[in-house]
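User: Second chain of the day. Same drill as before.
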Amino acid sequence: MSETEQLVDTSPLITDDGIVLGILMLSLALVFYTSSKKEGFWKKYYKIVPALLMCYLIPAIFNSLGIIATDWIEVVDGEEVKKKSSLYPIASQYMLPAALVLLTLTIDLKAIANLGIKALIMFFTGTIGIVIGGPIAILLISLVSPETVGGADFDAVWRGLATIAGSWIGGGANQAAMLEIFQYNPEKYGGMVLVDIFVANVWMAIILIGIGQRKKIDAWLKADNTAIEELKEKVSNYTQSVARTPVLKDYMVILGLAFSAVAVAHFLSDLISNFLTTNYAVFSDKSSALSSFASKFFWMVSIATLIGIIYSFTKAKTYEGAGASKIGSVFIYFLVATIGMHMDLTTILENPGLIAIGFVWMAVHAGLLILVAKLIKAPYFFLAVGSQANVGGAASAPVVANEFHPSLTSVGVLLAVFGYVVGTYAALFCAVLMEAASNI
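Assistant: Same format as last time:
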């Protein structure tokens, strides 16, 4: 290291995961305690701000204040060492699939089919919104700040934005595929990751606020919620019919069902992913549009959901009466808290040009969803979950769906899987449009 080189230590105040875990769980407990109040300030507060948003926002505030963090640089013996919290990987790799199993335990495939075509229409509307939003954002921002959307060769901004398109339509695997295909400058890639995380998380916060006002929104959309209410009522009636006072045995069996399924999902996802990448070059080549199908996370989510569906045809379904979906919801809320840890509210001023592109892009996505929802009279549920199945993927869509009702979680999962399927192809088309917009 040269004498002029400055070591940077970005360690948060608290780096011990054991302490951070306690902070997150205490935050969740306080949110649920205060949101349960039937009168006074808290009742009025939670009429405006959904409890789920607070579960997400409190960790984000802690992260923004430098109290906790998901990753940081620590100076050890004169060297910069990259450090990471293991809480989000634990939540996404173990708790999320366990939650998907427990929340699909009571799935009613026929009732979900009765929801009709509007759910798919809203999902694909969200996808189209991302595809056309990128080039529109480039064209609009170029009128104000041409240098923001410029760059040549591998520094071209459109190449970096292609990675955001992959993330917002599919997920991490699709994002990695776009980075490999378009070879955006790695030194500048961090700025794109910032836009991805910040804008997507702000949009998720807006979605969550909307959930608290969903009755008013549905009235404005003139939406028909009949099929959704029938599904919720059917699941609720079944839960009541098998309800019992749970004992220790019930909790142990529920956790056994969930985490044995997680084990199978991990085992098979490794097996399938390794088989595809070993035997077929098209899956191992990260510049291939099919590489995202070799993602272990994609297969893990898909298999965990499938196992939950299989459980729904067995006696395991009766464990819903002992609180299976409640335990699944605990896992989901912890995942929400760890997602919130990624949000740094202070970064909005670091690269205002790119952030502006992100917000214009998301505004096109949101505007198109609202327009189509109004035209086809789709419920806000389909708008919210259709959007998050694109922008948030399997980590966010089930969370948002679960906030409407646990019985609807499976809808979010199934739509998120669609996102993985179409993500790389749609992102490639978006990248082509953004390149053309950059050259106008």
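The chain is about 70% helix and 5% strand.

User: Great, on to the next one.
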